[in-house]
Description:
With 285 residues, the chain is an alpha+beta fold. It has helices spanning 14-28, 35-38, 92-105, 119-122, 155-166, 182-190, 228-235, and strands at 5-7, 45-51, 54-68, 71-83, 111-114, 127-128, 131-137, 147-149, 175-177, 195-199, 204-210, 214-222, 241-244, 257-261, 265-268. The protein has two domains: 5-131, Gcn5-related N-acetyltransferase (GNAT) (Aminopeptidase); 132-259, 3-Layer(aba) Sandwich (Aminopeptidase). The radius of gyration is 20 Å and the shape is globular. The model has no long low-confidence stretch (mean pLDDT 96).
Amino acid sequence: MQDLSFRSTYAHTGDGRRALGSLIRDIFGIEISSLDRLGHDPSVLAFGWWSGEHLVANVSVYERQLWLCGRRVKAFGVQSVATRPDWRNRGLFRDLFGRALAYADQRADLIILSTGTPDLYRRFGFRQIEEVRFGSETPAGTLSEGCRELSLERDDDLSLIIQAFAHREPTSLLASACDHPALFMLKAKLTSEIKLFHLKKLNAVVAVKQNESSLTILDIVAACIPSVAQIVGALGFTGLRTEVHLTPERLSWQPEEKEAVDNGYMVRGPFAPEGQAFMLSDMTI
């Protein structure tokens, strides 16, 4: 590592964000520059090895606000774990990951990440957890249609979403996330199938996927959590099937089906709802 320099103060500088965005784009094919407009999470701390002004390896952590088994829990998430191919097998990942864990361990008991390569993280004390998707026939709507599709390109819609996040209640007390909106909005920006709606009568923002026959509720951002039937009615949805990718105990709805899924989540530390049927949210990258 003699030809490299370590830095950890670049996550909130223009040059640092551009270098990190370039690394993520080159390694994962994900474009994150839209966060310059949508809003960056101020809790992010990036650890990186640099060759001159070129970022060659990175591990970032960010604060997470979770509700787990009735308790509000501060945790840390891990993201943007990447090393350029020419710099692999030099111990950069292990070094940066160790620094990130040391920082998070001093501030929280729980660390969460999502990965497609779980074997890479077991040696650091992470274990896999299973989430559940919930489904049923579509309930009868209890509200007349009253919604407006939101666009992240419109300043007033962006302000509405940010305001909703500022006052949001947890969708579940068993297992849910009340994180900064950055990843929610980035997921919506990058996934054309996801639609964001403002439910006027409920003053709620919902993220959904839908077609003529099925509706999938991905997240609900509101000061008062509406029921599934209220959401269905406000959207004017009349298809046969509804899925919920959230823990549903506050949604006044009884799922008929539960499907276990591996979303790549791994945890390090105590995770109270482990082994129960839950889902935090699909609105993350």
